[in-house]
Write a structure and sequence with these properties.
This protein is mainly alpha-helical and 116 residues long. Helix content is 52%, strand content 7%. α1 packs antiparallel against α2 and α1 crosses α3.
């Protein structure tokens, strides 16, 4: 019996988050949380035997499971929610939202601007 080599992505952040979610929710539950009706692809990725590319899957995992502790809201946000708050234009209709926007502009968690 030969040992199965670890997948090349085994040490990447998205895979570690996926493994943690699978340990917590099971493979089927994790696939459902990611929006997949079928758990086969999730299982194959976890087992290192998925034949396709994993970029889109990795993006979905990070959007769903990668969180940031927002100091302004004092709660956890997904990375995509944090990015949406930080990159939006300054709100003009709500002083509460302006305070939040200003806090985002100087926050250590603020995502870096995309280079053109």
């Amino acid at each position: 019996m030969t040992a199965v080599a670890a997948p090349t992505y085994a040490s990447e952040r998205w895979f570690l988050l996926l493994r943690q979610a699978a340990d917590t929710h099971g493979v089927r539950g994790t696939a459902a949380l990611l929006g997949y009706a079928n758990h086969t692809g999730t299982s194959q990725i976890l087992n290192g035997c998925y034949a396709g590319g994993t970029d889109a899957f990795a993006t979905r995992v990070l959007e769903r499971f990668d969180t940031v502790d927002c100091p302004h809201l004092a709660q956890s946000l997904t990375s995509s929610s944090c990015r949406q708050y930080a990159s939006r234009p300054c709100p003009i209709n709500s002083s509460r939202e302006v305070r939040h926007w200003r806090a985002c502009q100087g926050c250590a968690h603020r995502p870096q601007e995309e280079q053109a």
